[in-house]
Specification:
Layout lengths: L4 E5 L20 E2 L2 E2 H11 L4 E6 L4 H6 L4 H9 L3 H11 L3 E6 L6 H7 L1 H4 L4 E4 L3 E4 L4 H12 L2 E7 L9 E9 L2 E9 L10 E9 L2 H7 L11 H11 L2 E5 L3 E4 L3 H13 L5 H12 L1
Parallel strand pairs: 1-4, 1-6, 4-5, 8-12
Antiparallel strand pairs: 2-3, 6-11, 7-13, 8-11, 9-10, 10-12
Helix pairs in contact: 3-4, 5-9, 8-9
């Protein structure tokens, strides 16, 4: 089974970034000058994924529009002689096939994934969370795909976090079977620090077999009264093998203000047109 589709839930209200997100979807806030969601979609495209399924909510139409053609804008820019900008916009419109489905009520990540069931069908698929921006030499989702292609089993991304932060994540109990590869035995959503089975946290990249849909469809609400994807995965672990990949790359939590600033600075420093100016400013700001 070749994996062709990625589900990206983007229905959240983005309240941490108010007032900026009152009218602009959080996923369109730029890291320097590129909307953060574009980095996530690019990661999927670079891994060979052919179709993006956005799980959206009210006021999120602009996300899908960003990946559409913009003939009127392109014509204006062409008339002004801005041909390179036109080519850049056309590349965005040609990145991938995009479809969307509405999550009408905020019932949790597991419910958001379940909303994509009809569009995914009976095949494996990726789930990529827009709040996790991962910068790696090999795209994170590609690292997971390689394991899936070898095993045909579900794979989730893992990151070792400080002990004091485990209550902010889903956390696994597992056995390391190879460098960076874990056989997952159990998982728990946002445990108390003293109850956490490990420091290996689940990060927002998943390759899932379609069996997860039937589990999520019958799953009772969990923490926060929501359908938790981690709870669904915990049940999947009891039914068949699930693997964890401690990915290579730098992860930025851009659902957090400081994480967003970190990502902006890091990606600016990767830009030849900005690096020297940013470094100079940072040095002057420190002193």
């Amino acid at each position: 089974m070749k994996l062709k589709k990625a589900v990206i839930p983007v229905a959240g209200l983005g309240t941490r970034f108010l007032p900026a997100t009152k009218t602009v979807p959080k996923e369109l806030l730029p890291i320097v000058d590129i909307p953060s969601i574009q980095y996530v979609v690019q990661e999927a495209v670079d891994a060979g994924i052919q179709e993006i399924i956005f799980v959206t909510g009210r006021g999120k139409d602009g996300i899908e529009d960003h990946f559409d053609e913009a003939p009127e804008l392109e014509q204006i820019l062409t008339d002004r002689g801005q041909t390179e900008t036109v080519k850049m916009l056309q590349r965005i419109g040609e990145m991938t096939e995009v479809v969307s489905v509405r999550q009408k009520k905020p019932l949790g990540l597991g419910h958001a994934v379940l909303c994509a069931r009809d569009l995914v069908g009976d095949e494996p698929f990726a789930v990529m969370l827009a709040d996790d921006l991962i910068d790696g030499e090999t795209p994170c989702i590609r690292q997971l795909l390689k394991i899936f292609e070898e095993t045909k089993e579900s794979v989730i991304a893992l990151l070792e976090v400080p002990q004091g932060e485990v209550s902010s994540y889903g956390v696994i109990k597992g056995t390391k079977v190879k460098p960076r590869l874990y056989q997952i035995e159990a998982m728990v959503e946002k445990p108390r620090v003293k109850d956490a089975p490990s420091r290996m946290a689940i990060i927002g990249r998943y390759i899932l077999r379609p069996e997860i849909f039937a589990i999520l469809d019958n799953l009772p609400p969990g923490k926060g009264g929501e359908i938790q994807l981690t709870d669904g995965l915990a049940q999947l672990v009891r039914e068949r093998q699930v693997l964890g990949c401690e990915f290579e790359g730098e992860r930025y939590d851009i659902g957090d203000k400081f994480g967003f600033v970190r990502a902006t600075v890091a990606f600016a420093l990767k830009r030849p047109d900005l690096r020297d100016k940013v470094l100079e400013y940072l040095k002057s700001a420190i002193h």
